[in-house]
Amino acid sequence: MLIDRASNGLSGSLPDDDVQNPMAKRVLTEASVDETLADLESALRHTFANRALLVHALTHRSLANEEAMAERAADSKPGETPHPISAELGDNERMEFLGDAVLGLVVAEALFQAHPEWREGELTRIRAQLVSRNHMAEVARGIGLGSYLRLSKGEERGGLRGKSTVLSNSMEAVLGALFLDGGLEPVRRFARQYVMGEVVEHLAEELRLGAALGNFKSALQEYLQAERAGTPVYRLKSESGPDHRKRFLVEVQLRSSELERGRPLARGIGSTKKLAEQDAARLALERLTANTIDLRADEASEEEASEESDRPEAE
What we know:
It is built from 12 helices and 5 strands. By secondary structure, the chain is mostly helical. The strands form 2 sheets. It has a 3-stranded antiparallel sheet. Strands 1-2 form a two-stranded antiparallel sheet.
């Protein structure tokens, strides 16, 4: 297990410039791996007693298969074909299965305790949004999980590290590792901060407004189209914070055929750009439905109204 210098992630391949000194390379690699895993543990808010569980959770089947094939080839007699690869040789798919189940449990528990007013159907709908593949991929991006994944050289070149399905599955595998190493409490802690957090408040507001869950942007676009007012566009205004605790400020603007540039409607904040866009759309929709925005107002008055409604960015 080595550090991939190009991606700053964990890799099964060896840098060419270290080949001449295997002993020095091994010492450097072990220290680098420890440092890299410590960074991820900081984001996860858990120090692993058994780091092999975390490494296992980060290992994609492409690398497990590649390493197993190389090992079997080395063990084979000359002229023999290596045995087929077993599905149980060290990839993270079984741990993903466990993490998916544990995630569903802790999210259901938290929603049940926090919202006694919600009925079964409402709890089910909110949980489905929180554990969805799209949301878990965003959670993984939020902590920079992709840079830690262990992939084969081929998949690395193919850009697998940034694909939503891989990120979502790997995030669930890491949660499985958290559970195996520390029980439910570290999973609860992670879920409260990253999986739920501000997202639950947004979803609860959508329930109250009767909007499509997880999609204030679509609701805002449909509203503006019905009013023949124009099209919403989203502009990133600023970002701050360390990589594993980013905060984004996004402004939603109204663009119509009569205007060269968009008129500000509202600003939103979030731990990812998508969440900030959803927050901005939610605030704009609230103002529009409360008649605090005049869609026929001139650009200057909309700019003034937007500044009055903007919230300061959270630290």
